[in-house]
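Just scan my protein:

. . .
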Amino acid sequence: MAQGRGSASGSAAVVVGMLLLCVLLHAEVVESAVFNVGDRGGWSFNTNSWPTGKRFKAGDVLVFKYDATAHDVVAVSAAGYKACAKPARGAKVYKSGADRVTLARGTNYFICSVPGHCQSGMKIAVTAA
């Protein structure tokens, strides 16, 4: 029995194409949110309570705005956060005054490593779902 040219493979391609179209139309577009740390006050003293009441997701971006001649931002571990201590090596240090940091899933810890600043509340712990 003869079949029309490409009828079996053509039908399969159409079905696959329609399925992909349906998936794409129903897919949820996930966009990251951008948060200015400290809101209008920026990255400064007593910022440690800033994350309270906010919901963060992995992929969201924190923007740290500050005077780069007076402060920095250091990504630290939980222990570094608690002790207000920058690791001897391997820490990611930001110094631009307008740093953008993408959150990883879990708790992300940041401090200012200028002596006395972290102890004065210039640190945040942000948990991203």
The first strand starts at residue 34 and ends at 36. The mean pLDDT is 87.
